[in-house]
Design brief:
The chain is α/β, with parallel strands linked by helices. It is 28% helix and 21% strand. β2 (58-64) and β3 form a beta hairpin.
């Protein structure tokens, strides 16, 4: 019983899960209340439940509005990623609007620089892309092996975008440059 034993490491059985990045839209339009209580709460609650059931997957987290940020690299530690998700807040983002292309580009660059063979991006957004260059970015990274799965949050009827807690006043709506209330619809 006390003699030395040799154990071999079976890498195939240890890395059973998939590597994927979850990109979540942190633009102000995610605060619209066409989904109760609002899009942001519904999206983060769903992503949190998804990550809680991830098992042996390696997941990472990207937040994006005008610019995409890698908040958590690929990890087996789902509790750390879920904690990071809870600290994101659209009210605190300085970037205006959504740039879905920046999220796709950030995920593609991360996978390429880390030589990850399977490349999956789960994109959670209301789909409103203010830059409009998503398709070329998605095609470019698809040729490199990136698979993009989208999750839409919101309704086609839409709702007014709140001005934010720092705008003063209660329950005010954001206004565009023409003074009209901004209504966000899932695209």
């Amino acid at each position: 019983l006390a003699r030395p034993l040799l154990f071999s490491k079976d890498e195939k059985s240890e890395l059973q899960g998939l590597p994927y990045l979850v990109a979540i839209d942190t633009s102000r339009s995610m605060l619209a209340a066409d989904v109760r209580p609002n899009r942001w709460f519904a999206a983060t609650n769903a992503v949190d439940r998804f990550l809680a059931s991830a098992g042996t997957d390696r997941a990472g987290l990207i937040s994006f509005a005008g610019v995409a940020y890698l908040n958590a690299p690929l990890s087996f530690d789902m509790n750390a990623i879920r904690t990071t998700l809870r600290y994101l807040d659209p009210e605190l983002m300085n970037d205006a609007g959504s740039s879905l292309a920046s999220a796709v580009d950030r995920a593609g660059r991360y996978f390429a620089s880390n030589n990850v063979p399977q490349r999956i991006l789960i994109l959670v957004s209301d789909g409103e892309d203010l830059e409009g260059n998503l398709v070329p970015a998605a095609r470019r990274w698809a040729r490199d092996g990136l698979k993009i799965c989208t999750v839409g949050v919101g309704t086609s009827a839409g709702a007014r975008v709140p001005a934010g807690r720092f705008a003063g006043g209660a329950a005010r709506s954001a206004k565009n440059t023409f003074g009209q209330e901004v209504v966000s619809r899932m695209n």
